[in-house]
Amino acid sequence: MEDKEEALKETVQEENKEVSKEEVKEEKVTPAAQEQPKKEDKKGLFKKKDDEEKKKLQAEIESLKDKYLRANAEMQNMRRRMEEEKATLLKYEGEDLIKKLLPIIDNFERAIQMDDTNLEDEVSKFLSGFKMIYGNLSTTLQGYEVQVMDVLNKPFDPNTMEAVMTEEVKDMEPNIVVDVLQKGYTYKGKVIRHAMVKVSK
User: Fold this and answer.
1) Is residue 39 part of a domain?
2) Residue 137 in domain
3) HSE (CB half, 13 Å, CA atoms) of 182?
4) Distance from the CA of 94 to the CA of which of 16, 43, 66, 158 falls in 20 to 30 A?
5) pLDDT attached to residue 33
6) What's the predicted TM-score (pTM) here?
């Protein structure tokens, strides 16, 4: 009997031990199993945040690239404009001086238009001197690409001429230059003085 009772006790104790082991296993498994989805959830949240930050940073980079390219293009345009302006200034640097010389040439032309056949010898000598000075001035200005505009008997052009008088002329179409009252000049292709003209109507 005692042997049976001892055997029963041993089996009960063994069963209790097995049950307690299973409970411990369940307790160990349960928290780990619960923690895993939490960790995965946390990883998912961090991943979303990282993706959003990456997108923001990429957008900022693109914006900065665009601003840089625009600023660079503006700088190049400004440099090109400055170089063009500088080249233009250098090209026409003598324009002011030439404009001041033109009225002097006008006066010489008026002086040499006098007929020197009926003049005294001294006045005739002065007139021939004027003609020489006028010739030298004209040659010098031509060397600097100053040209007289050829406008007589040409259609009126408001870009190069200034109409101060009109006149009816038979057998001539309207808006044709019939007389040049003051010569017009160009300097290296640029109009520096408009021609004052009489136009047919």
Assistant:
1) yes
2) yes
3) 16
4) 158
5) 46
6) 0.57
Q: How many CB atoms lie within 10 A of CB 162?
A: 14
Write out the two tokens for 63.
Answer: 């914006």
Contact (Cβ atoms closer than 8 angstroms) between residue 187 and residue 92? yes
pLDDT tens by residue, the chain, 201 residues: 555 556 656 665 665 555 455 444 444 444 444 545 555 555 566 667 778 888 889 999 999 999 999 999 999 999 999 998 888 888 888 888 899 999 999 988 888 887 666 667 777 777 888 888 889 999 999 999 999 999 999 999 999 999 999 998 888 899 999 999 999 999 999 999 999 999 998
Q: Check which CATH number belongs to the domain holding 183 and give it.
A: 2.30.22.10
> Which range of residues forms the domain containing residue 58?
26-91
CA distance 101 to 133: 13
| Close Cβ partners of 190 (under 8 Å, ≥ 6 residues apart) | 92, 95
Is 103 inside any structural domain?
A: yes
Distance CA(100)–CA(97), nearest Å, equals 5
Domain co-membership, 139 together with 192:
no
| φ and ψ at residue 159, rounded to 5 degrees | -75, -25
Q: How many domains does the chain have?
A: 3
Task: Round to whole Å and give the CA distance between 28 and 120.
Answer: 139
Note whether 86 and 114 are same-domain residues. Answer: no
